[in-house]
UniProtKB/TrEMBL annotation:
Residues 273-313 are annotated as: Disordered. It is a single-pass type I membrane protein. Pfam families: C2-set_3, V-set. Residues 300-313 have a biased composition (Basic and acidic residues). InterPro entries: BTN3A2-like_Ig-C, Ig-like_dom, Ig-like_dom_sf, Ig-like_fold, Ig_sub, Ig_V-set, T-cell_Activation_Regulation. One of its GO terms (cellular component) is external side of plasma membrane. The keyword Transcription does not apply. Residues 18-127, 135-223 form the Ig-like domain. It comes from the Eukaryota. PANTHER family: FIBRONECTIN TYPE-III DOMAIN-CONTAINING PROTEIN, T-LYMPHOCYTE ACTIVATION ANTIGEN. This is Ig-like domain-containing protein.
Length: 313
């Protein structure tokens, strides 16, 4: 019996007496700030009643970054933090202003409003963006200046970005590049990408820096190889081919001459012993050798006198 009355009483009590959340609410919005500029985390106090805000606390994680009292008492570790609206006690706008935003200011904040009708709290995330510097391109000759290694560096950006490589036909060479990402003391990222173009005729090559949202932030083109020097490279390539051809043909000719020389010596030796080998049996498929052999032979009429046996058939 008593428990039923209790339940009834509790039920009536909860309907009639709303929690403090119903008196006062704080509403916040996430926002994005830019490094070096002022950022604002928007928060407002809402109430159906005519409330009085006594104090506002802004925390980042567990650390109070700003505590502002209605009588003007302000506490902050960092003067960059202040309330955006100096008339906050009347406007109920308790937004946080961060001057000269740093990348390290990014994070989750909470805002607490202490009023004469209770306390309310809300949270807001501050995202920070920092632009990357224009990429700086350097080149290094490798393999005795035959090949060039290109390095592109962009720094100071946030969040993490990427470096992509393209040739003059906009073919994506990023897969062949090696990119190192380093986070610096100020939490910004330094992107360093190295690429060795394999085909100078596809130049000029360019590196393009993209931010975390895949938007282009900067690019640099390397002109030294490619367009300007393309003809030189191609011609030197052809010269090399011609040189290689000359070497191959040259050795073939030398080989042939050597073979010819050996053959000639053999045939002469054969001539000196004509009785052992018949004349026609000596390589008839080499006309030059045959001609040579004929020339070295004594004129036929002399032979007639010397050796009548040869002439007789
Ligand atoms: C902020 O909060 C979200 C979840 O609400 C969490 O995923 C994120 O890691 C937090 N960021 C930081 C910097 O603590
Ligand atoms: C604000 O950011 C927090 C933490 O990143 C996230 O959990 C929340 O959904 C965001 N709120 C809105 C309204 O985008
Ligand atoms: C280029 O290629 C890389 C690696 O394959 C890829 O992640 C990237 O999205 C490509 N970039 C563009 C702009 O298509
Ligand atoms: C590359 O950078 C130049 C300025 O350096 C800019 O004018 C151009 O729009 C950028 N984009 C492309 C795709 O080349
Ligand atoms: C061609 O490349 C050489 C280095 O290999 C460089 O010194 C020269 O300036 C380049 N020429 C042009 C027109 O860019």
């Amino acid at each position: 019996m008593a428990s039923a009355i209790d339940i009834l009483l509790v039920g009536i009590f909860s309907v009639m007496v709303p929690s403090t959340a119903d008196f006062v609410t704080v509403k916040c919005q996430n926002s994005t700030g830019y490094s070096g500029q002022s950022s604002r985390l928007g928060c407002v106090v809402k109430s159906e009643y005519d409330i009085k805000i006594m104090q506002v606390f802004w925390k980042k994680g567990d650390i109070i970054v700003l505590s502002q009292k209605v009588d003007g008492g302000k506490q902050t570790e960092d003067e960059r933090f202040q309330l955006a609206d100096t008339n906050w006690m009347n406007s109920y706008d308790i937004s946080l202003l961060v001057k000269d935003t740093q990348i390290s200011d990014a994070g989750n904040y909470s805002c607490t409003a202490d009023t004469n009708r209770g306390v309310s709290k809300a949270s807001a995330a501050l995202h920070i963006k920092a632009k990357y510097t224009e990429p700086d391109m350097t080149s290094k000759d490798i393999k005795d200046g035959d090949t060039v290694e290109l390095t592109c560096v962009a720094s100071g950006g946030y969040p993490r970005g990427t470096v992509h490589w393209f040739d003059h036909l906009n073919t994506n060479w990023t897969r062949s590049a090696k990119t190192t990402v380093t986070q610096m003391d100020d939490e910004s990222f330094r992107l360093q990408s190295t690429f060795i173009p394999t085909d100078a005729s596809l130049g000029p090559y360019k590196c393009v820096v993209y931010n975390s949202e895949w938007k282009e932030e900067g690019n640099k083109t390397f002109d030294t190889i490619g367009k300007n020097n393309r003809t030189d490279k191609v011609i030197s390539g052809q010269t090399k081919n011609i040189a290689a051809g000359v070497v191959v043909i040259g050795s073939l000719i030398v080989g042939l001459l050597v073979a010819l020389l050996i053959f000639r010596r053999r045939s002469r030796r054969a001539l000196r012993r004509p009785s052992t080998q018949p004349m026609l049996g000596q390589c008839p498929d080499d006309p030059e050798a045959e001609a040579e052999e004929l020339n070295s032979r004594p004129p036929p009429y002399e032979e007639v006198h010397k050796d009548p046996l040869v002439k007789s058939p």
